[in-house]
Amino acid sequence: NRPACAMSMDADIADEIKRMPGNKVCVDCEAKHPQWASVSYGTLMCLECSGQHRGLGVHNSFVRSVTMDSWTADEIARMRAGGNAKMVDFFRKHGVEKRLPISVKYNTDAALFYREMIAAVAAGRPPPARPIAPFDPSMATEAVASPVGAETPLERSERLKREAQERLRAKFGGSDYLRGCGNTPTPSSPQSGGVSGDALGATLSSWSRSLQQAASKTAASAAKYSAAVATKLQEKDLAGKMKARVSAVTTKLKDPHTAERMKRSTQQSWRWVASSASSLWSKATAASADVLKTISEPASRGQTPVGSEGGAGRHPSSLSEANTPLAGGGSTGGALEGAGTVEDDWLREQIAAARAEMG
To answer: How do beta strands 70-71 and 63-65 pair?
Structure first.
């Protein structure tokens, strides 16, 4: 874990380190103005060589950016204890030339001893007192044919991805912000409830795949349902059937035989209506004639014909027949006799008019 006191390198300290002997060029390829450092050796290097140093592993070369990463006091002390010229001279004394591949010269016993010496000097301890194994020149020949630490493009891509994630964790902290940025990640403990970047990425990828699968299933179901509906409509052919029915009705109406049958049916219906009405009228006429005959013929049992004057035997419907006593002690017979004659004349006129109308 990065110490909590890690912070960006102060500009004065950065200038001090860059002014050290040999630090104006890359320790491995002589490129000018190097901006990356190997804390393990206290040296500065260019961006291209820093990528190869990362391929060696943090146990061999711990790489930091002078301007972008955070630094601890121990790391700055190692940079002050080292220097490009100092390391190049030490390696040359033990047979490790600067021109050798990075994968070769940093995997020698001389490189291991130099790392231990820089760490001891930075911590104020004496350097290790052990002999250094001599360098085998055959290692350089083997490295040209098959470089040590060579990686495939996929491995390089994965490594760069891990390094970027480690720098973000170190700079912002997994669950604690402003913890620094670099190679060393800040692991999230189960107690803190932190979520690692890999776990979050895996979760998001799983959600994305689930959403894509659900969308694909929905689209497939919609297409299948639409096809089924279209098939049903084509099978039933509703529009075609309706058109056929209308056409059949039109053909029937245009058929002369059908028109003739309809005409005959209509004529028969009218004849039936006219016959029924004539029968009813005849029956009504006969009934009226019977009533008139009954009224006009002389009444049986000694009654006088309707309309004759005087006598007590006139038709009961005549007003002259009334015999209601009056206030003067007389009857209504004499008083209404003239009125009864007028009423009988009117009734005979009405009967005659009705007979004339009925023919």
So the answer is: unpaired
